Amino acid sequence: MSLDGPSPVRVLETLDLSRGHAFTTPVKKIHEGQDVQAFLTSKAYSDIMTFLLQLNRAMFPRKVSQKVQSWPLNSDAVEFSEPVRRLQLLLSKLEAIIEEAPPDKGPRRFGNISFRKWYQIVESRVSELLDECLSPDVLGVTNAASEPDSPTAKTELTAYFLGSFGSAQRLDYGTGHELSFLAFLTCLWKLNGFPKADPGVEERGIVLGVVQPYLELIRKLIKTYTLEPAGSHGVWGLDDHSFIPYIFGSAQLSPAIAETDQTPVEGSLPDAPSPGDVARAEAVERERKTNMYFSAIGFIYDVKKGPFWEHSPMLYDISGVQAGWGKINKGMIKMYNAEVLSKFPVVQHFPFGSLLSWDRDPNAVPPPPTTHTMSAPQQPITSSAATSLPGQAAGTRAPWANGASRAGAAPPGATTAPWATTRAVPGGMPPAPSSTTTTRPATNNTPLDPSRLPPMQPTRAPWATTRQPPAGSGDSSSPSSTSMPAPTRAPWAK
User: What pLDDT band is residue 117 in, cutting at 50, 70 and 90?
Assistant: First the structure.
C-alpha cells in the first residue's frame, strides 16, 4: 500500500457472513524483528491501514453547495447511528468502573496499582458488557464449523477490546493499545457492525462519537492511575501515549474537498489556527474544545509543565510546517506507519485471528528490512540504518521527509520530522554534534563514550531545530537566553 501522493478513495470491504466464516482465537505471531516484515505484507496490515485512511478522509471538510462544512468536536452536523451510541454506552460503563477501583493513596514510584483492579473488573465483565452494548447481529455470528466450543466473532472482538486500555501488569498505556482499539473498530466494520451510509457519514460518527470519547476515557485512566508511557522514547517521540488524534485532528483543519477529489497533501482551511499555535497555551485552550489535534496537545499541557519546545520537541518541530495542515496530515500518516506499525516494540503483542489475518496480502510489496522492525535496540544506530516505509529509501528520519539541506538541520540518522521548518528553542541551545552514530545509554554493561554526548542537552533531543517560537507565545515558562530550565517531566510521575 503506497502512502505517497494523494490518497485514492478506498473503503474497507465487509464480510458476506451468509456464506459462513471460520473464526479463530487471535494469537501472537510477531516474535522477533523479522516478523514485522511479514506483518507489513499481511492482510491485517492492509485492512488496518485501509480503515485508518478511510476514517482520515472522512474528517476532511467538505464542499457543500458552495459552502464549506467542517467537522469540529461536538458538531451538530454529525448524527450518531445506533451502533455508535451503543459504543458510547460501552465506554461510559468503563468510565463508571473507575469509581469501583479508586486509586491507591500509598507511596508509589510508577503507576497506581489500583489500575489492576479496574482492569480485572473490566475483564470479568467483558462478556456481559459486549452483550449489552453491541448488536446481537454482530456478536451472534458463529463459526462456520458450528461446533459448540469453536471461536465466534465475540472471541475475536474481545481480544482486541481488552488490549485497548493499557497493561495491568506493567501499569502503562501506549500506541500499541491505541492500535488495538483501532483494530476492534476495524473488526466491527468488517462484521457489518455499522450501517451503510453515504461516503464519510458513518466514518465521521465513528471518529467523533467513538474514537474521541475513547481518547477522553484513556486520558482519565492515565491521570487517575498515573499510567506510565508504554515503551516511550520520552522527548524522542511524538507523544507519550497517543498518535491517532494527530491524524484525525490535522484532517479536520485541512482544505475542503468534494467527494470525488483526491485527499489533499497541503493547504489548510481559511480560518484554521496556525500550526505554531500549539506552543501558545491560550490558543491550545481555545482550540482543544473543537479539534482533536489540539485536544491531544491540551492533554500534554495538563500533565506536563515547562516550555513546550522542551517536553514535546517533535510536535514543536512539526508546528513550524508552512505548507499547512494537509502537509501535516500526510506526514502524520506516514509517521504512524513508520513509528507505530513498523516498530517491533509496538506491534510485538498484536494478536491475529480471522478478521485481521496474518495471511499474506497478495497485492502487498515486500518491504526492505529496517531498524524499525529489528528487536536489538542496544545496537547503535548508524546513518545507513533505515526507518522507511515499504519501498522507500534509507535514513532514520521520518520517511516522508524531503531531502533538502537546511541551516541547523538535523544530522543524518536523526529521528526528527524533517518536513517541518527549522525552529530554534529559546536559550541558545547548542546544535547537535555532527556524527553518523547516535549514542544511546549503555546497555548490557556496554561502556558509554562521554566524548560522543552533546553538551548541555537537558530533556530534549539533540536534533532539536533552531527557530525562535513566535513572539507573544504566551509561554510564561520559556527560559531566558542566559538560563536553562531544569528537565521537565510529567508532574504526576512518582
Answer: very high
**Position 440 confidence tier, pLDDT thresholds 50, 70, 90:** very low
- Quick one: residue 277, left, alpha or beta (phi over 0 = left, psi -120 to 50 = alpha)? alpha
Task: Classify burial at 445, counting beta carbons within 10 Å of its beta carbon; exposed 0-12, middle 13-18, buried 19 or more.
Answer: exposed
Long-range CB contacts (within 8 A, 24+) of 394-403: 396/371, 398/331, 398/334, 398/335, 398/338, 398/339, 399/334, 399/338, 400/3, 400/4, 400/330, 400/331, 400/334, 400/335
Q: Which residues pair with 275 in a beta bridge?
A: none
DSSP string spanning 267-327? ---TTPPPGGGGG-HHHHHHHTTT-HHHHHHHHHHHH--S-HHHH-HHHHHHTT-SS-HHH
Whose CA is closest to 488, among 231, 316, 250, 254?
316
pTM of the full structure: 0.78
Please, what is the angle between helix 175-190 and helix 153-162, to 10°? 160
Q: What is the DSSP letter of 470?
A: P
**What span, in angstroms and rounded, lies between the C-alpha atoms of 455 and 450?**
10
pLDDT digits (tens, 9 = 90+) for 251-306: 999 999 998 888 889 999 999 999 999 999 999 999 999 999 999 999 999 999 99
Residue ranges of E strands in 87-225 = 172-173
Residue keyed to cell 531531502: 403
User: Minimal CA–CA distance to 247: which of 48, 77, 394?
Assistant: 48
Beta strands 228-229; 27-28: pairing state: unpaired
The grid cell for 483 is: 538560563
Residue with grid cell 533538502, as numbered in its chain: 404
Q: Radius of gyration over alpha carbons of the chain, in Å? A: 22
Contact 335, 238 (CB under 8 A): yes
C-alpha cell at 203: 466514518
Q: What count of other Cβ atoms lies within 10 Å of the Cβ of residue 431? A: 17
Report the candidate in 485, 461, 489 with the shortest Cα–Cα distance to residue 305: 489
Distance separating alpha carbons of residues 414 and 432, to the nearest angstrom: 10
- The pLDDT tens digits of the residues spanning 154-175 come to 999 999 999 999 999 999 999 9
